[in-house]
């Protein structure tokens, strides 16, 4: 049995150093029965439910202006608001979980997700739907909180595979949710999507409340109001510019103003965070080599993941006369679903590989597999079965990479800061996917040609989209190679 020092903080924020037996889980130390399989399953289901909210409206995105009686500009906010809220929420909810209890904060987020789904299900117009979608976006914070709960509650030998599974749900929910959404929208009123989301959220809420233990690893302290407001404003400006720049024009005063303003706000925010005793995001911890390089690699992998998510559905559904494959929505969604299944299947495999080789080789292998998939997409004259195989390859790579990232992060931060650190890493992945959505959409739009009465992306545009995905995967591989090993005390000592 190995004894080590772990640092905790009291409610007032003063450091207290206590001895703990690391091989024991919180369940064992508190005398509660250990049910690791149930805890893992519930947290994975929570992650799938939260990430499903990101793609729930994709099948009817083009029809929203008609369905809501709104302009295209207003209807676009139904998609944008979920991205904004989820990206801003993840690091904040992670920090709150470290302070007040990860399970407690996860329950609050799930409750808001259910409330948002109900509001959206009842909404007759665009404004209440935007409100409901914003509340749904808060649920994304459950994923980093779930990963942190696993570290605090599971025996060490179970941690690798469990972390891989919950981390992969960030991609799994979207991949599996797309065909489900397509099926529902083809056969029922679109509001049924939100009633289904409310039912899923309520089920998960009950399961988390009854099956998941509360971690006793907390920092205490006070909420960093300046940090919360500064991060929210800075990220909102940047993400708005990225997600709406294609509509507003990348060189328009509004887009440029948001980009420059967001960057300026984040610079000031970082300056202030370095001078606060108990900051929202501990930038000294985030600047450690393993954390910084892993987060940068996460941006690149998020970009690589979403490049295919934007390009493949359009290529599959595009009419054959325009160079596509002419598949109906549901059939196209079913062709993409195996990617999510591959992520799920790779989770236990990734856990075993991580135990043997460590998380860094896993990230290198995952990003290399994604690069191979995009190489095939660039070189082949794509048919439906090619896309199916390539998408499965990308799913395998994402499964390995997303399994490695939380373990790389948690091996380099104090146990009391895993919620905030995992929240920031989830944010980095979201920045990658948001950037890919904007860049690939711009590439496909710029390459569009007229086919009859319609305008459609050209084959050259799809080729360029796959090249961007390949470049992102290669960048991720290079960054992963240079991730340094954490110092022995990184996961035990606070940054200041």
UniProtKB/TrEMBL annotation:
Question: A single Gene Ontology molecular function, please?
Answer: transmembrane transporter activity
- Sorted UniProt keywords: Membrane, Transmembrane, Transmembrane helix, Transport
User: Where does the UniProt annotation locate this protein?
Assistant: Cell membrane
InterPro entries reported for this sequence: MFS, MFS_dom, MFS_trans_sf
Name the residues that span the membrane: 38-60, 75-93, 105-124, 162-184, 190-211, 223-242, 254-272, 292-312, 332-350, 362-379, 385-405, 426-449, 461-483
Gene Ontology CC, one term? plasma membrane
Major facilitator superfamily (MFS) profile domain ranges (all copies): 39-487
The UniProt entry, under Pfam families, shows: MFS_1
Alphabetical list of SUPFAM superfamilies matching this protein: MFS general substrate transporter
Q: How does it sit in the membrane?
A: Multi-pass membrane protein
Q: What is the name listed in the Swiss-Prot or TrEMBL entry for this protein?
A: MFS transporter
């Amino acid at each position: 049995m190995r004894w080590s020092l772990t640092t905790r903080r009291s409610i007032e924020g003063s450091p207290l150093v206590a001895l703990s037996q690391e091989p024991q889980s919180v369940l064992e130390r508190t005398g509660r029965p250990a049910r690791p399989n149930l805890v893992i399953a519930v947290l994975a289901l929570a992650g799938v439910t939260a990430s499903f909210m990101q793609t729930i409206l994709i099948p009817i995105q083009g029809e929203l202006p008609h369905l809501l009686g709104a302009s295209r500009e207003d209807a676009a906010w139904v998609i944008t608001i979920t991205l904004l809220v989820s990206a801003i929420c993840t690091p904040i909810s992670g920090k709150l979980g470290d302070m007040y209890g990860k399970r407690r904060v996860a329950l609050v987020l799930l409750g808001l997700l259910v409330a948002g789904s109900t509001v959206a299900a009842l909404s007759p117009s665009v404004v209440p739907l935007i409100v409901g979608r914003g509340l749904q976006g808060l649920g994304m914070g459950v994923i980093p909180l779930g990963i942190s709960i696993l570290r605090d509650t599971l025996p060490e030998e179970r941690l690798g595979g469990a972390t891989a599974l919950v981390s992969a749900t960030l991609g799994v929910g979207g991949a599996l949710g797309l065909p489900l959404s397509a099926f529902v929208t083809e056969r029922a009123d679109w509001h049924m999507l939100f009633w289904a989301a409310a039912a899923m959220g309520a089920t998960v809420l009950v399961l988390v409340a009854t099956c998941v233990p509360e971690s006793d690893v907390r920092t205490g302290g006070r909420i960093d109001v300046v940090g919360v407001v500064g991060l929210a404003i800075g990220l909102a400006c940047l993400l708005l510019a990225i997600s709406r720049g294609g509509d507003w024009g990348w060189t328009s005063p509004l887009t440029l103003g948001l980009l420059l303003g967001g960057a300026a706000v984040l610079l000031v925010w970082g300056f202030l965070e370095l001078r606060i005793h108990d900051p929202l995001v501990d930038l000294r911890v985030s600047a450690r080599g393993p954390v910084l390089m892993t987060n940068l690699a996460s941006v690149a992998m998020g970009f690589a993941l979403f490049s295919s998510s934007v390009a493949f559905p359009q290529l599959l559904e595009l009419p054959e006369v325009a160079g596509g494959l002419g598949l109906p929505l549901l059939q196209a969604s079913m062709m993409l679903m195996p990617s999510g299944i591959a992520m799920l299947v790779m989770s236990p495999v990734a856990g075993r590989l991580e135990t043997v080789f460590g998380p860094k080789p896993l990230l290198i292998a995952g990003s290399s597999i994604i690069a191979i998939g995009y190489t095939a997409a660039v070189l082949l004259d794509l048919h439906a079965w090619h896309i199916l195989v390539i998408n499965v390859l990308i799913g395998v790579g994402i499964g390995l990479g997303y399994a490695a990232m939380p373990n790389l992060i948690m091996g380099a931060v104090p146990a009391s800061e895993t919620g905030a650190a995992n929240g920031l890493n989830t944010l980095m992945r979201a920045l990658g996917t948001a950037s890919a959505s904007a860049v690939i959409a711009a590439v496909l739009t710029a390459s569009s040609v007229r086919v009859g009465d319609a305008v459609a992306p050209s084959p050259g545009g799809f080729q360029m989209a796959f090249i961007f995905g390949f470049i992102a995967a290669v960048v991720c591989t290079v960054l992963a190679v240079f991730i340094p090993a954490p110092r022995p005390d990184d996961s035990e000592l606070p940054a200041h």
